[in-house]
């Protein structure tokens, strides 16, 4: 089959919403080419494993590439994508150059194109994420390796918001706690919590493809006895009483269920949220405080913010 590659020159801040738009338009897999990935300094303590070829990287901004089947709906899909991206301006999201190009690729190129950007990466003191197709040997006995096949779901583990969440889970999760992961994507945060000693993790996603991808990754990492994954909208009808809720979602979505998170958490429980761009930090913090939370910590990576909030004991 012939595929069309759609390439969007945009900004770091727009990666997540545009990836969602591309998925909704029927794209299979999104490749992120980020100029910062080449220029940023590698963290030696976290021992990131990278072999980068400058020729593979762009000089500025981010290219998002996705693949759409070449059929009679292509024109319509591209139009729908363009309109949805322009709508992001309403939410104050910087879409940068927003230059969109289309080119033809064959099946073989499409299947492997995105894999060259995805390498094993040490994301926290204990967690390394490696794609299923890479051979990786842990460097120390306390290193936990998560194998991921991101498939079509968000969550390769390399997005700054995911890394911030993994680091916060590592810092705050205590063994035998109950965790809820809202918007699990590839399941990476649930797997992290399970490997770090959670008693049970409830993973939810609105997207059926994400639920399927998470299920596969949960089994791949032998964590199925500790994680229940289900299609669900936010915390609707969830009745478990977690010690910790993690939600890596856009600010606008977090501000739709912060009160539900507060009500559900055990007293003293934590709400870890990311997916928040810096411009929305205060809005989210105010919403959390209005719901009754205390802000415990705020962490930053690139243009992204992570907030740890506590329900008073
Ligand atoms: C930014 S991704 C995070 C994936 C993963 N947790 C991570 O940290 O890498 C957000 C995920 O939230 C899901 N999502 C969006 N709206 C949702 C909703 N209303 N309820 C549940 N999940 C939702 C999306 O399908 C997507 O998989």
Automatic annotation (TrEMBL):
Reactions this protein catalyses: L-lysyl-[protein] + 3 S-adenosyl-L-methionine = N(6),N(6),N(6)-trimethyl-L-lysyl-[protein] + 3 S-adenosyl-L-homocysteine + 3 H(+)
This enzyme's EC code(s): 2.1.1.-
Residues engaged in binding S-adenosyl-L-methionine: 162, 183, 205, 248
The keyword Manganese is annotated on this UniProt entry: no
GO CC annotation terms, alphabetical: cytoplasm; ribosome
CDD domains per record: AdoMet_MTases
Location(s) in or outside the cell: Cytoplasm
One GO MF term: protein-lysine N-methyltransferase activity
Transferase among keywords: yes
Pfam families according to UniProt: PrmA (PF06325)
UniProt xrefs under Gene3D superfamilies: Vaccinia Virus protein VP39
GO biological process, one term: methylation
Keywords: Cytoplasm, Methyltransferase, Ribonucleoprotein, Ribosomal protein, S-adenosyl-L-methionine, Transferase
SUPFAM superfamilies tied to this protein: S-adenosyl-L-methionine-dependent methyltransferases
Enzyme type, top EC level: transferase
Described function: Methylates ribosomal protein L11.
Family from the record: Belongs to the methyltransferase superfamily. PrmA family.
Protein name: Ribosomal protein L11 methyltransferase
Gene: prmA
């Amino acid at each position: 089959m012939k595929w069309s590659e759609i390439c969007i020159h945009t900004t770091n801040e727009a990666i997540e919403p545009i990836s969602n738009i591309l998925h909704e338009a029927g794209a299979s897999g999104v490749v992120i080419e980020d100029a910062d990935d080449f220029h940023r300094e590698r963290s030696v303590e976290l021992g990131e494993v990278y072999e980068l070829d400058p020729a593979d990287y762009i000089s500025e901004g981010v290219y998002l590439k996705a693949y759409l089947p070449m059929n009679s709906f292509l024109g319509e899909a591209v139009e729908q994508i363009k309109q949805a991206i322009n709508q992001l301006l309403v939410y104050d999201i910087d879409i940068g150059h927003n230059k969109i190009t289309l080119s033809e690729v064959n099946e073989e190129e499409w299947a492997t194109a995105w894999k060259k950007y995805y390498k094993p990466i040490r994301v926290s003191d204990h967690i390394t994420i490696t794609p299923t197709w890479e051979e990786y040997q842990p460097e120390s006995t306390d290193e936990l390796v998560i194998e991921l096949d991101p498939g079509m779901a968000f969550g390769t583990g390399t997005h700054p918001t995911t890394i911030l969440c993994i680091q916060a889970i590592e810092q705050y999760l205590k063994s035998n706690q109950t965790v809820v992961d809202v918007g699990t994507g590839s399941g990476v945060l649930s797997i992290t919590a399970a490997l770090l000693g959670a008693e049970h993790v409830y993973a939810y996603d609105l997207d059926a493809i994400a639920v399927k991808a998470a299920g596969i990754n949960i089994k791949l990492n032998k964590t199925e006895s500790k994680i229940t994954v289900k299609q669900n909208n936010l915390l609707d009808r969830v009745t478990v009483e977690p010690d910790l809720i993690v939600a890596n979602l856009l600010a606008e979505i977090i501000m739709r269920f912060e009160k539900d998170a507060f009500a559900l958490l055990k007293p003293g429980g934590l709400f870890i949220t990311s997916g928040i761009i810096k411009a929305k930090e205060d809005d989210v913090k105010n919403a959390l405080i209005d719901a009754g939370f205390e802000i415990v910590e705020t962490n930053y990576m690139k243009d992204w913010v992570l907030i740890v909030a506590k329900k008073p004991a």
